[in-house]
User: What shape does this take?
Amino acid sequence: MPTAIITGITGQDGSYLAEFLIAKGYHVIGMVRRSSTITFQRIKHIQDDITIIQGDLHDQSSLVDLVERYQPDEVYNLAAQSFVPTSWNQPVLTGEVTALGVTRLLEAVRLVNPETKFYQASSSEMFGKVREVPQNENTPFYPRSPYGVAKVYAHWITVNYRESYDLFAVSGILFNHESPRRGLEFVTRKISYGVARIKLGLTNELRLGNLESRRDWGYAGDYVEGMWLMLQHSIPKDFVIGTGVTHSVRDLCELAFNHVDLDYQDYVVQDPRFYRPAEVDLLIADPSKAFQELKWQPRIGFEDLIQMMVDADLKRLALEID
Ligand code: NAP
Ligand code: F7E
Assistant: This one.
């Protein structure tokens, strides 16, 4: 039975990756940080099938202990301060966790067992003010937020440990991926939840920022398979994972409101509070390397994804009201 450690197991991707690896027969170890309230909503249905261990990307010894104790075959580093706007309010914390935390975990792997395979959750935010369209593995980075800058550091330290110490360490450059488990502050979930609340008569407006920015949105459940495939490849390499299709936030609003027979223009209010100091205007992946070398393909398209999220929020809220 292979063993995998997932940092960030309580997050959106961690929960889908844990389900995926359990189904593949892995012993899954989930690292969680200590908190005064339980943060296991996304993994409570699989809690009996995984081992939960406390640790923190701030704390080197907790990471060394973890790797020493479980001698994993694979480590998936998904933990991060992942919300872009927060990275302007907490730039130092974002750097500590999202950038330096990766070095701490790589050090733990290198010191304890350099045979361990390592996956780093890199991001399309590294492309930022894009240098070419669409973006592939060779597109230069131009990050536009402290989060993006931290992820560029994390990407290069992963590449550097691969080249310096011959680690099987790879960086998956994933474009935006969403699901009914997405945090409420991210725009897809903010919209699906807002639409459901409006449809159920709980509110009559949805306040958003920039409606013109464009993203390549896919389904998180599809993307975790790409992470695993990268670690099964014969050679450690970095890959872009995305759909190759882009939509604006406005398109997203239109689709989500239409799904419940409403017109977004009657409810969406643009609010400067949600504008960013520097925006990423356009992201669109060129995932052809992953298609060819990993045989990876997204299964769920944009329309189905957004409808799935709206339906899930309608169901959840209807149960709460009951
Ligand atoms: P998420 O839902 O925000 O989850 C982040 C996870 O990191 C949570 O489990 C969180 O724990 C944990 N965490 C935060 N600080 C930590 C610390 N100091 N020590 C240990 N754990 C810590 O993020 P996600 O959407 O699943 O994304 C997973 C990873 O992929 C992140 O690294 C993100 O930056 C990256 N990424 C995401 C996307 C995307 O579109 N989703 C795209 C590209 C890259 P708590 O539950 O305790 O907060
Ligand atoms: O914003 C615009 C906003 O916060 C998407 C993270 O997972 O993906 C995510 O980062 C766009 C931006 O995601 C609102 O200005 C408009 O242009 O959903 P988001 P993100 O910043 O793209 C990348 C790949 C990651 O790696 C990150 O970890 O939507 N937008 N109005 C809004 N965004 C939010 N959050 N809220 C609004 O009201």
In short: The domain at 3-177+218-241 is CATH 3.40.50.720 (Rossmann fold). Residues 91-112 form the longest helix (22 residues).
